[in-house]
Amino acid sequence: MIAAYARNGNCEEALKLYSGLHLMGFLPDHVTFVSVLPACANLADLQHGRRIHEQVIKSGLQFNVFVGSALIDMYVKCGSLENARTVFDKMPQRNVITWNAMIAGYAQIGQVDKTLDLFCKMPLRSAVSWNVIIAGFTQTGHNKEALSLFYEMQRTGFQPNQFIFASVLRAFANLAELDRGMKVHEVIIRCGFQSDVFVGSALVDMYCKCGSLDDARKVFDKMSERNVVSWTAMIAGYTQNEDITEALKLFEEMPKRSVVSWNAMIAGIAQNGHFSETLNLFQQMQFSGVKPNPDTFSRILPACANLASIEQGKEIHENIIRSGCQSDVFVASALVDMYGKCGNLDDACRSFKNIPRHNVVSWTVMILAYAMHGYADEALQLFEQMQNSGTNPDSVTFIGVLSACSHVGLVDDGWKYFDLMSQYYHVTPSMAHYACMVDLLGRAGYLYEAQDFIENMPIKPDATIWSSLLGACKIHANIDLGELVANRLFELDPADGAPYVLLSNMYAEAGRWDGIINVRKIMKDRQVKKKPGCSWIELNNQVHSFLVGNESNQ
Question: Most buried residue, 29, 145, 291, 332, by most Cβ within 10 Å?
Fold first, then answer.
């Protein structure tokens, strides 16, 4: 009965039944333990799993190979690799399931050396063993290692099965290796797996991610059986390649749309910047009777944030509360981000304080919200709390921290955090971090220091970097440096009208009418047009956009 509950996903019921039997004086045997431990694993309930481990020891069954394998699997899925390895090392006998469980644990957290070391010591490997290590490496981004193992497997005479092919195709997709992916496609046809739904879905995904939509569609159309993964992969392929029309058309043809399908479509449209359409699609989803899940809310809230649609954001917040998803850290983080970007810092703070357990995402979005609103002290204090909590900041966190320093001119602190990022946390500065530093130096009036910083960057500065310095030149009325920076921007993107306009405004403020005439002449010769201004207004839960000079609205 316990095993049946666990197999059907009723893991809490399985644990309740086990606890009830234990209180009644029932003595569990190896079958009981093998049945109940997967319930702990599926719930990631480490505390309950440890208690059952103690009972295993009291029963004298800790050396049973099946119980030991179940314990390792439980500890691995609960994220306790040390305990899993202790059980593994103490087992006098191990079977292929034991080895696979331990190898999967290391592979799934990207510990390549330990995974390979254990895999090499394995006395007997099965197709499952190869799939465990290849799939684990693929899932953690070690795609080249996964492919090396695939080719080694073939050299040893192992015949890949449909699951191994699916994992290998995912590695080719992640690496955008179209040519080698096509060669494996030929092998799949020879092996007779082309009609397998898992392989077919992986092929569609591989071709889409490699930018070959025609080949993806050919595979999709030839599939005798399609599941939600197949449909979602093809739809995602269209959205990733900015073909929203075809994505929506295929979505309408989908025979059965699950919450996963809706989430993929919503995410695809949002990633292409169609935020109003994203909100409309969310409404269609609700009208269709499909209930949103935490993933849905995490995807839809950024659309409200980008449109500054506070009213719709609040309605979705109410929906989240009714759905019982408010304690999900990713949903709560999306709420913090939405309220922050919509200008409602109080609700952002309330949403942040209601998160039961913070992760790097929740800390980061709150730091960004404080920085965006100019609350530098609060942002930096929260950053200190984050570090004290044991959560390591990531690259996005440091963008928030550096932005906070920039808003209030904390130049020394900015340098301190910039060095901390690379030297202590080993986060490689990106273009965004360099842009923050240029903005910090520029706002504070250190224009030539900013110029020197740009010219000594280890990566080639883009237009964003130079635009930040040009804006600082305007603030501090430094026309000489402004002209030099503007010319750099003209070279980088001659068609962008923004630097021409900014330089022209600088000339106007200085009374340099000859400069204005010269800039306008250059714009005319190069056929550069100034982009019209755009504003949004929210009315009756609809966001309308207005362009300058256009009497109609969207």
Answer: 332
- For 91, the 3-state DSSP assignment is coil
Nearest residue to 63 (alpha-carbon basis) of 94, 101, 40, 28? 94
| DSSP 3-state of 542 | strand
Q: Rounded to 5 degrees, what are φ and ψ at 543?
A: -95, 120
CB 297 within 8 A of CB 332: no
Name the β-bridge partners of 546: 535
Question: Would you give the DSSP letter of residue 437?
Answer: H
Assess contact for 384 and 417: CB atoms under 8 A: no
Residues whose CB is less than 8 angstroms from the CB of residue 428 and which lie 6 or more positions away in sequence, other chains included: 395, 422
**In whole angstroms, what is the distance from residue 56 CA to residue 202 CA?**
41
Residue 553 corresponds to which amino acid?
N
Q: What secondary structure does DSSP assign to 384-422, as a single string? A: HHHHHTTPPP-HHHHHHHHHHHHHHT-HHHHHHHHHHHH
**DSSP secondary structure string, 180-219?**
HHHHHHHHHHHHT-TT-HHHHHHHHHHHHHTT-HHHHHHH
- Displacement of CA 87 from its chain's centroid (Å): 33
The conformation of residue 242, written as its DSSP 8-state character, comes to T
Query: Three-class SS of residue 543?
Result: strand
Assess contact for 305 and 333: CB atoms under 8 A.
no
CB neighbour class for 51 (10 Å; exposed up to 12, middle 13-18, buried from 19): middle
Handedness of CA 517, 523, 529, 531 (dihedral sign): negative
- 3-state DSSP assignment of residue 547: strand
Cβ contact 282:320 at 8 Å: no
Contact (CB, 8 A) for 302 and 334: yes
- When pLDDT is cut at 50, 70 and 90, the band that residue 255 belongs to is confident
Closest by CA to 75, choosing from 40, 116, 34, 103, is 40
Query: 3-state class of 448 per DSSP?
Result: helix
Q: Name the burial class of residue 529, with classes exposed (0-12), middle (13-18) and buried (19+) by CB atoms within 10 angstroms of its CB.
A: exposed
- Do 78 and 45 form a contact (C-beta atoms < 8 A)? yes
pLDDT of 440-468, one tens digit each? 999 999 999 999 999 999 999 999 899 99
The one-letter code for the residue type at 74 is M
Q: What is the pTM of this model?
A: 0.70
**Which secondary-structure segment (H or E) carries 103?**
helix 96-108
- At which residue do the structure tokens 């992986």 appear? 202
CA-nearest of 261, 250, 266 to 300 is: 266
The model's pLDDT over 179-234, given as tens digits with 9 standing for 90+, comes to 999 999 999 999 989 889 999 999 999 999 999 999 999 999 999 889 888 999 99
